[in-house]
């Protein structure tokens, strides 16, 4: 019994971290209606940045947050304005520009292979002051970096939700996501909103990267497993919904951890994809997604 | 101009055809060796070490005058990245044989890739030397072109259990419950099948049989299950990435067992030791070779490799290095690059001493199924040595490093 509770809590902890990586993806999709396949690679860039920060300065990895998050915001912002914007302009009249998806896939391959060439294929682990520390609670052990990570996710989630609901920029972003022509009629510059949204999405990746570094290893294709999970979570939670992303992440984490107690770990992947398919069949717009498609 | 158009294609085709005939007749002044190994993905660091070892061997052979029986022909290495993926391995094997026209193939480290890739080589009749891919079935299909240097996984698994028996006797410790944690590919599953048989023979209770995906992003659920099962001894088969995750998580969750016996592969990878550090203390690993064996020429070769590439040789790199010398011997004896002649020479050859002497045994000699008869194994224990981790040979007892007593069972965390 204790094993199941331990698994459940571990699932919630790891799941919220998965959710954090998914928040960026859902934001970018919700606003720009673009499926960003380069999302995993942006996470990878963030993780390398956090890794080098910790190795070069030897400080606590959470001090990397004020460095890595703005760095990734800028990275996402410039990637959108330099590479993706021209495609949008070329496909002005199309509601869901498919070429952008292809471009993001290209960016994924370029970034991953660039990292492979520059950093090599080995797995790097950063030894930080929080690495390996555990919380003990009634004979159940929880990794400290994961607990901190889950806490940070909660804070980020609440902040983003507040930001989108109440701040001027947040309202502009929501307006653009609902109807971009109407929003530009109201004086909102579509291009700027897209840049900010992409930057915000990448900044979320940066936050997730700083949270992962204390207990996960970095290598050029580290983005891929997280990317795949992020897609499942985003569909589960509903495209464009931030609470949906975090909740979806927690659900995925719980399925992974608790499921593994009853069957071999090999089968939990199957279970995960099974649940994914089930949600698609029963409620394609996800838990919190919009019901209609405009 | 228009009336020449229909003639352009046939004329060009004829020219290419004529040209290709010319190329086949010329005697080769390079012997092309295709190498399919993982240069990215979870097994990348071992793949890269295999590449470096091959490079070192070929540079030595070429600067010593190449293959004298072929007029000083040089060896040329071509590398293909299998990414640890069987389908990629097969495509690359086809490409190496058909486009690059290699004379021999070696590879692929991951048993799951080697198994289908060798099938491609068998179909085209190109000799394929397997330095280290242990799945038994690789040399059990009646193929004539596959030659394996390392021992089969059945031998590895048996030696792991014999080692456990010896340790029980030497330290008077009882072991009743065992757990198997292994990656769910060809390699891990092959080991697990043998372990299950051996455990049954010896009357151990198997409290956990847990395959897991090597590319998982989180292995905490596996460790939770392992802890709850309370085994005495854990047998593991992992690639480097998952070995790192599992070892670190097991230390963090304070999983207390009498011993952990791993199966080489990821656990033998220097990047695993660098990343797991002290968490890997007291781990027992089975490999075909270790840098502290007392073998002629071993120290010089290891020092040279370490100087070039920054770390010690290990099982894969040593077998890859030896494979290049076996190829050199075969070419010298056959005196030709004809696949059938090479194949026949390889099946009869016996390569002893010299550069091959730095292996844990004296000669490489392939039997009718292509398996090296003399392949043997050693078990090492990992201990901290200053800032790094050291792997100390402990078994068989006659090759144990002088002055070292193994720690069994390992102390509580």
Strand and helix layout:
The complex is a heterodimer of chains A (294) and B (413).
Chain A: H1 2-32, H2 39-57, H3 65-90, H4 98-119, E1 134-137, E2 140-143, H5 144-166, H6 168-178, H7 180-185, H8 190-212, H9 223-237, H10 242-262, H11 265-282
Antiparallel strand pairs in A: 1-2
Helix pairs in contact in A: 1-5, 1-8, 1-9, 1-10, 2-3, 2-4, 2-8, 2-9, 3-4, 3-8, 5-6, 5-8, 6-8, 9-10, 9-11, 10-11
Chain B: H1 5-25, E1 30-37, H2 44-63, E2 74-81, H3 86-98, E3 104-107, H4 111-124, E4 128-130, E5 146-148, H5 153-171, E6 177-183, H6 186-202, E7 205-212, H7 220-229, E8 233-237, H8 240-252, E9 259-262, H9 270-276, E10 284-287, H10 298-309, H11 315-334, H12 339-348, E11 350-352, E12 363-365, E13 378-385, E14 388-395
Parallel strand pairs in B: 1-2, 1-3, 3-4, 4-5, 6-7, 6-8, 8-9, 9-10
Antiparallel strand pairs in B: 10-13, 11-12, 13-14
Helix pairs in contact in B: 2-11, 3-4, 5-6, 8-9, 11-12
CATH T-level fold name of the largest domain in chain B: Rossmann fold
Instruction: Using a beta-carbon cutoff below 8 angstroms, give the protein chain pair with the largest interface and the number of residues from each chain.
Output: A-B, 37 and 38 residues
Helix content of chain B: 40-55%
pLDDT below 50 for ≥5 consecutive residues: which ranges of chain A? none
Strand numbers in spatial order across the main sheet of chain B: 7-6-8-9-10-13-14
Main sheet properties of chain A:
2 strands, antiparallel
CATH architecture of the largest domain in chain B: 3-Layer(aba) Sandwich
Tally the helices of chain B: what do you get?
12
Distance between the termini of chain A: 47 Å
Question: What's the overall average pLDDT of chain B, rounded?
Answer: 86
Q: How many whole angstroms does the radius of gyration of chain A measure?
A: 19 Å
Q: Label the overall shape of chain B.
A: globular
| General shape of chain A | globular
Question: Total domains of chain B, how many?
Answer: 2
CATH class of the largest domain in chain B: Alpha Beta
Whole-number count of domains of chain A: 1
Largest sheet strand order of chain A: 1-2
């Amino acid at each position: 019994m204790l094993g199941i509770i331990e698994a459940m809590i571990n699932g919630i902890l790891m799941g919220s971290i998965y959710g954090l990586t998914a928040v960026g993806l859902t934001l970018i999709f919700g606003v720009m209606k673009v499926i960003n396949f380069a999302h995993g690679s942006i996470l990878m860039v963030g993780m390398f940045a956090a890794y080098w920060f910790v190795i070069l300065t030897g400080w606590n990895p959470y001090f990397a947050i004020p460095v890595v998050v703005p760095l990734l915001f800028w990275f996402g912002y410039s990637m959108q304005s330099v590479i993706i914007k021209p495609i949008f302009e070329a496909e002005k009249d199309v509601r869901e520009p498919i070429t952008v998806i292809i471009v993001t896939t290209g960016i994924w391959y370029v970034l991953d292979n660039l990292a492979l060439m520059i950093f090599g294929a080995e797995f790097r682990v950063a030894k930080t002051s929080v690495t390996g520390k555990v919380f003990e609670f009634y004979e159940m052990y929880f990794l400290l970096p994961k607990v901190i990570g889950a806490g940070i996710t909660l804070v980020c989630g609440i902040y983003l939700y507040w930001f989108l609901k109440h701040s001027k920029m947040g309202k502009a972003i929501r307006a653009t996501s609902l109807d971009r022509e109407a929003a530009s009629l109201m004086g909102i510059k579509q291009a700027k909103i897209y840049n900010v949204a992409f930057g915000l999405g990448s900044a979320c990746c940066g936050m997730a990267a700083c949270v992962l570094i204390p207990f996960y290893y970095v290598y050029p294709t580290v983005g891929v497993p997280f990317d795949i999970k992020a897609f499942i979570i985003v569909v589960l939670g509903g495209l464009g919904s931030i609470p949906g992303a975090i909740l979806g992440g927690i659900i995925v984490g719980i399925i992974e951890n608790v499921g593994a107690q009853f069957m071999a770990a090999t089968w939990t992947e199957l279970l995960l994809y099974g649940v994914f398919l089930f949600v698609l069949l029963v409620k394609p717009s996800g838990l919190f997604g919009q019901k209609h498609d405009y | 101009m228009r009336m020449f158009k229909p003639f352009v294609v046939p004329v060009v085709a004829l020219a290419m055809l004529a040209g290709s005939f010319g190329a086949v007749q010329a005697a080769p002044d390079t012997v092309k060796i295709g190498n399919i190994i993982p240069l990215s993905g979870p097994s990348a660091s071992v793949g890269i070490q295999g590449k470096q070892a091959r490079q070192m061997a070929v540079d030595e052979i070429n600067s010593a005058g190449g293959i004298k029986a072929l007029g000083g022909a040089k060896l040329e290495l071509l590398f293909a990245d299998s990414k640890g993926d069987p389908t990629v391995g097969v495509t690359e094997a086809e490409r190496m044989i058909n486009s690059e026209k290699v004379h021999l193939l070696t590879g692929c480290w991951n048993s799951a890739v080697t198994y289908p890739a060798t099938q491609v080589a068998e179909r085209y009749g190109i000799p394929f030397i397997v330095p280290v891919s242990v799945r038994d079935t690789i040399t059990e299909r009646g193929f004539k072109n596959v030659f394996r240097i390392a021992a089969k996984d059945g031998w590895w698994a048996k030696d792991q259990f014999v080692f456990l028996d010896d340790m029980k006797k030497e330290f008077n410790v009882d072991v009743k419950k065992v757990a198997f944690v292994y990656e769910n590919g060809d390699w891990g599953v092959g080991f697990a099948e043998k372990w299950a048989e051996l455990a049954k023979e010896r009357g151990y209770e198997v409290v956990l049989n847990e395959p897991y995906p090597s590319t998982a992003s989180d292995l905490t659920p596996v460790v939770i299950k392992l802890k709850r099962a309370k085994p005495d001894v854990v047998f593991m088969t992992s690639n480097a990435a998952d070995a790192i995750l599992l070892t670190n998580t097991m230390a963090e969750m304070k999983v207390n067992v009498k011993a952990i016996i791993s199966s080489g592969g990821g656990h033998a990878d220097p990047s695993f030791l660098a990343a797991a550090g002290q968490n890997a203390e007291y781990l027992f690993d089975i490999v075909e070779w270790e840098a502290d064996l007392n073998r002629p020429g071993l120290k010089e070769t290891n020092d040279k490799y370490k100087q070039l590439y920054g770390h010690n040789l290990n099982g894969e790199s040593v077998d890859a290095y030896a494979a290049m010398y076996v190829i050199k011997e075969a070419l010298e004896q056959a005196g030709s690059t004809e696949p059938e002649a090479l194949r026949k020479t390889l099946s009869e050859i016996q390569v002893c001493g010299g550069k091959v002497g730095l292996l844990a045994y004296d000669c490489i000699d392939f039997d009718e199924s292509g398996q090296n008869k003399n392949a043997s194994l050693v078990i090492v224990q990992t201990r901290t040595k200053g800032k790094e981790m050291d792997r100390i040979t402990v078994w068989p007892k006659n090759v144990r490093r002088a002055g070292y007593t193994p720690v069994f069972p390992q102390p509580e965390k």
